Amino acid sequence: MKKNLDINVHHITRVEGHGNIVVNMRDGVLEKAHLNIVEPPRFFEAMLKGRSFTEAAIITSRICGICSLGHQITSLKTTEAALGLEVSEQTVLLRKLLVNGATIQSNILHAYFLAVPDFLDAPSVFPLIATHKDVVLRALRMKRLANDIGDIVSGRAVHPITPVPGGFTRIPTRDELLLLKDKLLNEGLPDCAATVETMKALAGAIPQFERETEYISLTHPEEYALYGGAACSSDGGTFPVEDYLSVTNEFVVAHSTSKHARHKREAYMVGALARWNNNYKHLNESALAGAETLGLKPKCYNPYMNTVAQVVEVVHCMEDSVRIIDELLGCGLKAEKPNQTPTRYGRGIGSTEVPRGILFHDYTYDNHGRIVAANCVIPTGQNLANVDADMQKLVPEIVDKTKPEITQHLEMLVRAYDPCISCSVHILDVDFKDA
Amino acid sequence: MKPKVAFFDFTGCEGCQLNKLNFENELLDLLAHVDLVEFREAMDETSDEYDITFVEGSISSPSCVERIHDIRRRSKILVALGACAVNGGINAMKNIQPIEQVRETVYGQDKYRFATLPAMPISAIVAVDYEVRGCPMSQPDFLQLFKALVMGKTPPTYNYAVCVECKLEENECLLTKGQICLGPVTRAGCQAICPGVGQACIGCRGFVEGMNREAMVEILTEKGLSVDEAVKRLQLFNAYEVAV
Fold first, then answer.
1. Fewer CB in 10 Å around end: N or C, chain A?
2. Are A170 and A24 members of one domain?
């Protein structure tokens, strides 16, 4: 049958920011399958111009409430690279603990609150309070614990306060870290095990769909790369993060206020699934066991499994946080002042794996420590071309389903990427008419 | 009957909405007292009328203006949430550069292709009944307002400086330690959370009414900033209010 199909999901729900799904098929020929990004412009690069190095991270953390820690840490690393500021081993450990906390918080938020309702055919998490109260309470408890990491180590989980160029304005106390470790062991780890069981029970609702693509993430020879490393591609090759522009190759498309990106193919994927595919060997044993339980195998080409990869990372980060606290306490906490004496001025590039994928910041400072040029390349922007390519393969495969079913598959696909649209449109505005 | 509550977002980071989902311990109790009818970031459902509407983010494009008028018409009480909605917040920094220059920085040769407006607080377009300040909005502040509205009371407002709360918290004064702190002119209500952990106040809650700007600039220049740098620091979250 030559099918006509028009789908227009205006402001897709349960994602961060504003996007529309548009699909048009005429006589069985797919004319259009896009995620349209309609978020208003942000202009962060313009805002950063002329700002002091002490203000850069305060400003860029406001690119996104969900990823504020990731932006902040990346911004600090970028400024430190540009100004030649060395940081201590303790600072690095505290930052890694923060990155773990932010990864747990964001992945839990997405898996339980935004994705699970689809698996249970519910319009949101709120009706599940009545039907699955223990699961909702567990999700809230895990989010609280992740936020406790942020509150204790950085002063506040959303838009953290104490991380500054060169270190921290306040170091957590031994007692605070011991309390945190106790919660991670007695609450966090059992909740992780229960989460894996819950996800296993729901995994049947994850659509079977595959599209092999290029996967890009940081990689590190000794650890599951979240805080730092070199950029790497599943198509081969690692690149110093300083060469990020040769990886991201951003370009403008008419249907999106966020730029798209491509590397060796038409599109590439970043995020938990890309990290899994490139770096699964460095996950701790609990996380690998969780992956096995959930049927997540190395080189997974089903983008819907990104949510499963996020759950596996939660297990990893929970256990890894205990290890970091042990290491911090083993070294003895030191009351350090942040090192804010520049040894050079110029350009710096920093990269972190934030929950949605690889993030790059790039600043150039003048001799007074003021920004003259800035660029931020955001994970969601890097994924957009890949989302479109997935949709273009997916729609013909499910065209015999009803329109509501097709729409639901498409919405679930977009949600699986856990897009962060406010982030992705940090600079661009196309004069786009709301459909 | 339970009040119908809705949440909407405009230009911003959605961190204030996230902060609501971060009431892990209180969330279920809060939800028991209201009928949550619209919250795009977390749920699919929508509604036509609202008793209490919370709005996050700034107005920054023509479609934002249209949308906020529509939301206002359908809302009995409208609350601005967070710095972007209350006073334009960090978004308004783009206003202080010539728009020509901002467009060129971002779009290069395509600079005339895109429509944009200066970033504005919600109150620049429609009447706002109450506000929760801060970037992000402070959670205790939000809880207090939420409880007051559900009980039909008037929520508290703050028109004194962060310094007052900072003294009550018995923090060491960061200005006397040489830091660039905006506590003397910034509205309280945050329990001086930043100075409490050694970070200077950055003015995210907006300024007290009738602030003494000259005196604040003078204090900052004594700490080593130029007048231009002092004004820029004041503008970080308040560029809509503090003209050059």
1. N
2. no
Same domain, A215 and A78: yes
Distance CA A313, CA A288 (A): 9
CA distance B214 to chain A (A): 21
* Angle between helical axes of A285-293 and A189-202 (0-180°, round to 10): 20
- Could you give the ipTM of this predicted complex? 0.90
Q: Are A18 and A39 in contact (CB under 8 A)?
A: yes
Q: Are strands B4-9 and B35-39 parallel, antiparallel or unpaired?
A: parallel
Domains and CATH numbers, chain B: 4-151 (3.40.50.700), 162-238 (no CATH)
Which has the closest alpha carbon to A418: A386, A376, A371, A380?
Answer: A380
- Interchain CB distance below 8 Å, B45 and A55: no
**pLDDT tens for residues A391-422?**
999 999 999 999 889 998 998 999 899 887 65
pTM of the full predicted structure?
0.92
How would you class B147 by CB atoms within 10 Å of its CB: exposed for 0-12, middle for 13-18, buried for 19 or more?
Answer: middle
Q: Which of A241, A205, A245, A248 is nearest to A351 (CA)?
A: A241
Which member of A45, A123, A429 has the closest CB to residue B45? A123
How many residue contacts between A and B have a Cβ separation below 8 Å? 168
Is A435 in CB contact (< 8 Å) with chain B? no
B39-71 pLDDT, tens digit each: 876 677 777 899 999 999 999 888 889 999 999
CB contacts, 8 Å: B232 with chain A: 50-51
Cα B173 to Cα A369: distance, rounded to the nearest angstrom: 26
Mutation test of the interface with chain A: which of B28, B91, B194, B199, choosing the one with the most A Cβ atoms within 10 A? B199
